[in-house]
Structures are given as structure tokens and as C-alpha cells.
Design a protein that fits this description.
The protein has 475 residues and is an alpha/beta fold. Helix content is 42%, strand content 17%. Strand 1 and strand 2 form a beta hairpin.
């Protein structure tokens, strides 16, 4: 016998075979609903008692969850009892006075209201015990105005909670409100164009054009005309007058990607344009003033290019009014797994799939050096979704088995080794003291705040107990 809801179910009097299956830490449940068909999703045992097993559901496809909701509402027993808290009424009111839930189940949009309310309640329960620094990190992550950038019809997002990424988000916010020229530095695939777009979208120019020019992809003999336009008949093949990208971007932003590849003769013309903001088309005897903000990006070492005579120092200083340096994935720490999970969820929604990384896959993602950065990660995750057979994505599915890690296997930095020894010692003393914080601090000869700091640093769970002081769990 099964009692079922959107969040889970209670299985009573389970048969021995079913009981053995339910004893697993994680399992996939499959069941048939009349008029709704077969549903399949993940579940885990939340509680076991003499009467049966309580299951909590997860990895629930939104469409399947809606089917379950329709089945539940179609079969709600008529009565005057709130199904959320059990309070009885002579006549069921529109809103429960005890739990505050809306009880008009047949109104339009109720399922969305129910899902939103349940999610908010779950979020409140999760964040109430977080420390101030954790809350600030969470706010930085969910700040839609900061992290989301509209690009065409899709939403592209920055994802990251590390100090370096938060500093970059802050710099984007600050420079967006100005007209300073921005120079974005970073390896290929680190998100330089996305950063430029983020600046444009947060500026007063957001309703004007955002025009991209790839200085490395256009032949040198055509690049000047592409940048500044040309008059009819100014060269062979110029059959009509054409505006250049700088003129098209009038009022908006021009993004010069791979600026380090710009030929020297065009560097002088770009410098002149940046000084007076006047466009002179090829073959024209006059110029046109435009109002364009210029953002440039490169993966080249411009300092070395200047020393080698390949890049003008005066142009560099003109472009470098506000520099932003993007770190490669191998330097983003735990943000790498966070970013991978974001892309996995996004691509699964696009493909109508439900997948999750195995523990080993997550470890491989964090350990791999990602020479192609975000672009390589996107390709590997898209391919892994197609290659994986079940609900999980393995190291093999990602194509990371046997590939080079960010650090040779078995070799750790001195800082990591010291941290490992420290974490092991703290765990040993806490276990010896039965997790009594005061006793453990005395044995370790550190203060209580210092011990709490190490507990958080090494993600050590301290279970609450008698005379244990404050229990701390870093989720």
C-alpha cells in the first residue's frame, strides 16, 4: 500500500524484495498512474519505521511532476481537512489559517504557486542556519541582475562564488555605468565576449547595438573596410557604399575581439578613432562623428607584444582604461564543478533529459585542467548527456578518464598537505572529545573561534549533542 505526494511517498508493508530495494541509499522508482501513464524518477529513503518506508523524491521531470499533481488533485478525498497540515474546518476556507497554504486547488496556476511556495519554504529552511559570509556568497550567486545576461533569445549566465569571480562581477557592475574603454584579458574560452556583453547590458547603452568584430578572423586587406566602412568604387569589389562596424555601433558598444592580432597599420587608425571618435570610410574625403564605446579583448600577452614591436604602446594605454582579467577554469577551484552542474542542468532542460554527475565524475571535473576552458566544458557535457545510458554521467561519458589532471597524480602542494594533516588532526580530536567544542579547543591549544574556523574550512560536520556547545554543519 502506498501513500503518495509531490515530495515523496510512504510505502507500507513492503514485500521482502521491495524492502531490500528500498534499503538502498538511492534508487529509481517507477509506477503507473491511471489516466497519466508511467512515471520514473529518483528517490531516497528518508525514514524507516515498523510500518514501512518514507521516501523523498528527487530528479523529478517537471512534466512528470505535473502529471502526478493532476492525479493527486483528481483523487483528493472530499472533506474539510487541510491536506498540508491536517487542520479540520466545518467548511474548507480559501486559505488555511494554520499553515497559510492556498486551498483552492482547481484555480488556474495553482501548480506553479504550489511549486514556488514549496521551493521558497525549502530555501528558508536551508539558509536559516548559514553564517553571514555564506549568506553573502549565496546572495551573490542568485543576484539575477548581476549573474544573468540576455543574449538573443537565450539566457546566458555567469556562475561563480569564488572571491576572484565575485570581484569580477563587482568590476563589471562598476565600469558598466561609465564610458571607459575596457580591456578584457584571458585565455581562449574564458568568457571574454560574455563579459563584454554583460557590461553593455548594464550600461545606459543597453538598448543600442552591441557589435562584435573578430580582428583575427577577417583578412587584413578587408579589415579596415569592415571596421570603418567604404565608399562605392573605393576598391575592387566595392560595388556599393557600406557602413563599417563602428558606424553600425553608433550609440552602442563595439567589441573588438582578439585585438592583439590587429595589424600594425590598422592599430594607428584605431588609435586615431579612439582619440576623436570620427569614422572615415575607405575612399571618403570626410569623416563622421559617432558615439561608440569600445571594449577590447585578447588572449595574447600584450606586454610581450609591445616589447616585440607587434603592438603599439599608446594604443594599449588607450584601450586599458579599465582592465578585467578572467581566470582560466583550472584556477577557479570549486566553481568549476558549480559551473559544470549549471551547464548540465541547462542542457538537460534543452534535451528533455534528467542527469547527474557521479561522485567520481565531479572529482574528475575539478581535477582536470580544462585547456579549452568553458568552451571545452560545454562540448564535453553536451556529448556526455548523449553518451550516458542511465540517469548518471560517468568519467567515461565525459571523456575525462585517462586525461591529464591539473596536477600530476599523487603530487600535492605543501599547502594542501598541511591542510590535509590539519583536517585529520581536528577530526581525531573532535572524535576523542565526542564533538565537545570546548574540550577539543583546549586539547588543540586553540581558541573556540579558531576551531570553528578550521571546522568550516575543512567542511567537518559536528553533530549536536549533550554539552557540545554550538553544532556547526557546513552544507
Amino acid at each position: 500500500m502506498v501513500s503518495i505526494g509531490l515530495e515523496g511517498a510512504f510505502v507500507k508493508n513492503a514485500a521482502s524484495g521491495l524492502e531490500a530495494a528500498l534499503a538502498q541509499d538511492g534508487l529509481t522508482v517507477r509506477y503507473d498512474l491511471p489516466q497519466q501513464g508511467t512515471l520514473e524518477h529518483g528517490a531516497r529513503v528518508a525514514r524507516k519505521d515498523p510500518e514501512g518506508f518514507a521516501l523523498s523524491f528527487h530528479d523529478f521531470d517537471p512534466g512528470a511532476k505535473l502529471k502526478l499533481w493532476q492525479y493527486i488533485t483528481d483523487n483528493l478525498a472530499p472533506g474539510s481537512e487541510c491536506p498540508f497540515c491536517g487542520r479540520r474546518y466545518p467548511v474548507l476556507p480559501p486559505v488555511c489559517e494554520s499553515c497559510g497554504w492556498d486551498l483552492v486547488f482547481d484555480r488556474q496556476g495553482y501548480f506553479e504557486y504550489r511549486e514556488r511556495t514549496a521551493t521558497v519554504k525549502d530555501l528558508e529552511s536551508r539558509v536559516k542556519d548559514l553564517k553571514l559570509d555564506q549568506l553573502k556568497k549565496l546572495v551573490s550567486y542568485v543576484d539575477v541582475d548581476l549573474l544573468r545576461v540576455r543574449a538573443g533569445e537565450e539566457m546566458r549566465e555567469f556562475v561563480g562564488t569564488s572571491p576572484h569571480m565575485l570581484q569580477i562581477f563587482s568590476r563589471i557592475r562598476k565600469v558598466a555605468q561609465t564610458d571607459l574603454s575596457v580591456l578584457i584579458l584571458g585565455e581562449s574560452g574564458t568568457g571574454k565576449e560574455l563579459t563584454a556583453l554583460a557590461i553593455h547590458e548594464r550600461s545606459a547603452r543597453k538598448d543600442k547595438p552591441f557589435v562584435t568584430i573578430n580582428c583575427a578572423a577577417i583578412p587584413e586587406n578587408l579589415l579596415e573596410a569592415e571596421l570603418f566602412g567604404h565608399e562605392k568604387g573605393s576598391f575592387t569589389g566595392a560595388y556599393a557604399t557600406k557602413k563599417g562596424k563602428m558606424e553600425v555601433a553608433d550609440g552602442g558598444t563595439a567589441f573588438l575581439d582578439e585585438i592583439g592580432e590587429l595589424p600594425m597599420n590598422l592599430q594607428a587608425k584605431l588609435l586615431r578613432f579612439l582619440q576623436d571618435r570620427v569614422v572615415e570610410r575607405v575612399g571618403s574625403t570626410s569623416g563622421k562623428r559617432v558615439n561608440v564605446r569600445v571594449i577590447a579583448a585578447t588572449n595574447c600577452d600584450l606586454d610581450q607584444a609591445i616589447q616585440d614591436g607587434r603592438f603599439r604602446k599608446d594604443l594599449y594605454y588607450r584601450l586599458d582604461e579599465f582592465p578585467i582579467s578572467l581566470p582560466p577554469l583550472r584556477e577557479r577551484g570549486e566553481d568549476v564543478v558549480l559551473l559544470a552542474k549549471f551547464f548540465l542542468n541547462r542542457f538537460c532542460r534543452e534535451m528533455g533529459a534528467t542527469k547527474a554527475f557521479t561522485k567520481r565524475a565531479a572529482e574528475a571535473i575539478e581535477g582536470y585542467e580544462w585547456p579549452g576552458n568553458v568552451r571545452e566544458m560545454i562540448n564535453k557535457i553536451r556529448r556526455a548527456i548523449v553518451m550516458s545510458d542511465g540517469a548518471t554521467i560517468s568519467v567515461t561519458d565525459l571523456g575525462l578518464d585517462g586525461l591529464k589532471s591539473a596536477r600530476p597524480q599523487g603530487v600535492a602542494s605543501l599547502k594542501e598537505e598541511v591542510g590535509h594533516i590539519e583536517a585529520q588532526k581536528v577530526r581525531e580530536i573532535l572524535q576523542l572529545c565526542d564533538n565537545n567544542i570546548s574540550k577539543a579547543a583546549k586539547l588543540l591549544k586553540v581558541s573556540r573561534p579558531s576551531l570553528y574556523s578550521r571546522i568550516r574550512k575543512h567542511n567537518i560536520d559536528v553533530s549536536p549533542g549533550r554539552n557540545h556547545g554550538r553544532a556547526l554543519t557546513d552544507k
